[in-house]
Amino acid sequence: MAHGSRLVDLVHERIEEFLAERTSILRSISPDLDPLDAFSRRFLSGGKRFRALFCYLGWQGVRTHAFDPFEPDGAGDRLPVVSAAAALELFHAAALVHDDIIDRSDTRRGAPSAHRLFEGLHADSGWAGDAAEFGTDAAILLGDLLLGWSDELLDEGLDPLADRRAARAARAEYTRMRTEVTAGQYLDILEERAWLTKPADEQRLRAERVITFKSAKYSIEAPLLIGAAIAGANSAQLEALRRFGLPLGVAYQLRDDLLGVFGDPEVTGKPSGDDLREGKRTMLVASARERLAPGQRRLLDELLGDAALTPDQVHMLQRTIVECGAVDEVERMIADNVARATAALDDAPLGRAARDELGELAKTVTRRAH
Length: 370
Known about the structure:
75% of the residues lie in helices and 1% in strands.
């Protein structure tokens, strides 16, 4: 996208400025809190910033003749949409910290996850008690801290907004997003444990519900709507963004599900077959279970969720899922959802530049290798 790299720079600058203000409070309390500062910066320094980009494009699509945040007048990083985009990145970092605890993931983006960093700090320091318990406890608090900071950063961005109706609408979209993603996360962990007691003909519906609320809305639809709301979007513009954002969000998560089973660890930063060891009941697994013979289905069910799966067992499950046609079906679902999303842009009451860039970003987020 034309302004993508510049927006990422502005968001990074806004995050750094905000963290400097907040971590000065931590330092005034105790130097023992320095790891909270260091680890929060670590988890906010990378990533693809997709949510920030979608937030900006939702804003740009509505405010086609608005102030250009990329003009070199020094005000861009104070624009409400930049603060909202940065707040989404803090929220995402908080979600990742908590998600890694729930999934018992050792790595994030090829480096130790937050709870493992705190566990290592405990072990290296020679402190009393169990290092793993300290790691989990401290990471929960780090995630909570980032979550609270995301709210503060959003409010700082919305406070100077002259259109108070727009500010309230943006806050409402943000609040709804927080509720939906938490509900989706609960449904995800529930599905890993309750699937055996649920009717087999509901597995697709239940997997789709997890995709929708844990990821699709939060990753793409909500950022678009928050940005658009800040710009004063009308109901037709918001509805057009929903028609684009939800199917694209579904496609985005379906791609992520494929990467969770088949992704290259050198690229994804996660062990190969990580979702198999975690027992994720994704649409990919639902499709495979429908297609497999009873014996193969029982073997899949027995092995899925075994944290001790060997590389050979992972490879065997991967081959089984491919050969039954589940991967091909999920690829078709991705293509169909991307087509629905891009078709929604054709007559959307949004600026042409934003529609073009949304179309390009739709390809990027669903063809990614990590």
